[in-house]
Amino acid sequence: MSAFSEIAIILLVTFGVSIIMRILKQPLIIGYILAGLLVGPYFLNIIHSVELIELLSKIGITALLFIVGLGLSPKVLKELGIVSVVTGAGQVVLTAVTSYFIAIFAGFSQTHALYIAAALTFSSTIIVLKLLTDKGDVNKLYGRVSIGILLVQDLVATITLVVITGLSNVQNSSVFEIGYKLGNLLIIGFILLVTLFLITTQILSRLTNFVSKSSEFLFMFSLAWGLSIAYLYQILGLSLEIGALVAGVTLSMTPYSYEISSRLKPLRDFFILMFFILLGSQMVFENTASLVYPIIIFSLFVLFIKPILVLITMNLLGYNKKNGFLTGLAIAQISEFSLILVKIGNEMGHISTEIQSLITIVGVISIAGSSYLIVFNESIFKHLSKLLSIFEFRKNFKRETRLPKDITGVIFGFNRAGPEYAKMLEREGVNYMIIDFNPEVVSKLEEAGKNIEFGDASDIEFLEEVPVKNLKIAVSTIPDFQTNLLLTRFLREANERTTIFVPADSKSQALELYAFGASHVVLSHYIGAKHASLMISKLGYENRDYEKYKEKHLKEINNL
């Protein structure tokens, strides 16, 4: 059978398995690994052109890490909130330490335990972002914190890759020799990074302006840049993987990073498919009996203990158990990074193929399980809410209410459209207060002298403490439809005279909120389109006529 025939049959089998994954609402990455298992030596035994598949998978890893690097721009990292950084770092440390000792107690060597700990620590940015987007939860508090944690994990994973690739051929080396080698590699890597940064700021920005005039030219340039920098790092004693990441980071500082990323994703998807197929085909089951218990233990750890560790970390930062638990469920799987790490570790001889297979199986189980955990996270929380209270070590966010009885206006949630509503109420002389469940927002507004209280609008017990008898207006900026439904029903039953403004994303949501007593439902996309159409009717089609409004709008945006 020719190599072409092999790949054609492999893709056909992968497509068939992927159909089943779609029916089961599972990420396709699971289908790729299972397809690899099917075409491997245990079943169909189709793969014989191993070198070709390995080359394609290597290109896939390079493309994946290059695109990850494109998302790690200094601008994005600067925008990471302190909560995401602290929670992300805390989660990494807690998960790594806990899983390391579990692996040691399970009888694994220190080297194997270190790899297992690293693999279980990282979560999948691609899968989590896809599932949160499908649910419409990206802009919710737990969604934003989850994405922030994943970005922190990507940074830590990058450093881990540097360390692991620097530990090749050190089996019989002393600690001093290992440290010396790592130090040299870090120095070389730093010098290269600084050099590339200077090239990026002085030359690359101009070059990308030139090549961006043609989409095909930009695609060709970015591909050549990513692969050549990866190769440069390899010949200097580092690794293709680190080079690909650095190449992505350098291009992330250009205005075309998003376009480059979007154009490379189809290429990445094909080649990374080969990586996961190869990974599945290389799974071994000779010592399956001895791996059953570790697989169960580590899978349970990722799916259930990892969320609890995140819950505890966020609780200590002042977040309520709901947001902590939902964030934990969002990252209850292992990452593509994890599978790449163990593959590199196996190629370097640090870990056996059995350990690689163990982590791959745990990856399949955790990714499959976490998909359902994210989809049904609200229902799971409702059933476990009372039980989760035992992990609330910090109780000060449940402080006794300080809600003043003479308020006549309330803004629920502040981080979105809250400032505009606050300005309006201040102009109207309304005695209002803000209620928010983001500790960061609460602290900032308290420092600014605002009348704010920590509270969750989805908590009926808290709502019962809100003085609604004299309430003239209540405004919600919360993006969650179910919370707004509860809030609307509660406020309307408590006071028929209160004016209630709530947001919605669709016509059906708006109709349901009106049915429960909302005074006005804000359909932001409809209002925005209506405002834009009126502006076009007034100003016409000449771009220069919009300059005055553009300057005004920019000032408004900067003052948000």
Q: Give the N-to-C terminal Cα separation.
A: 63 Å
Let me know the average pLDDT: 84
Fold-level CATH name of the largest domain: Na+/H+ antiporter like fold
* Major sheet strand order: 3-2-1-4-5-6
- Give the uncertain stretches in residue-range form: 396-400
Order of helices and strands: HHHHHHHHHHHHHHHHHEHEHEHEHEHEHH
Strand content: under 5%
CATH architecture of the largest domain: Up-down Bundle
Describe the structure.
- The relative contact order is 0.09.
- The protein contains 24 helices and six strands.
- The protein has helices at residues 3-23, 28-39, 50-70, 74-78, 82-105, 110-121, 125-135, 141-166, 175-211, 215-235, 240-252, 257-281, 288-316, 321-330, 336-347, 353-375, 377-388, 418-427, 439-447, 460-463, 481-494, 507-515, 524-539, 547-558; strands spanning 409-412, 432-436, 452-454, 473-476, 499-504, 520-523.
- It folds into two domains: 3-389, Up-down Bundle (Na+/H+ antiporter like fold), CATH 1.20.1530; 399-558, 3-Layer(aba) Sandwich (Rossmann fold), CATH 3.40.50.
- The radius of gyration is 26 Å and the shape is globular.
- Helices cover 69% and strands 5% of the residues.
- The protein is mainly alpha-helical.
- The longest helix is centred in the middle third of the chain and has 37 residues, at 175-211.
Q: What is the structure about, briefly put?
A:
This protein has 2 domains: 3-389, Up-down Bundle (Na+/H+ antiporter like fold), CATH 1.20.1530.20; 399-558, NAD(P)-binding Rossmann-like Domain (Rossmann fold). By secondary structure, it is mostly helical. The termini are far apart.
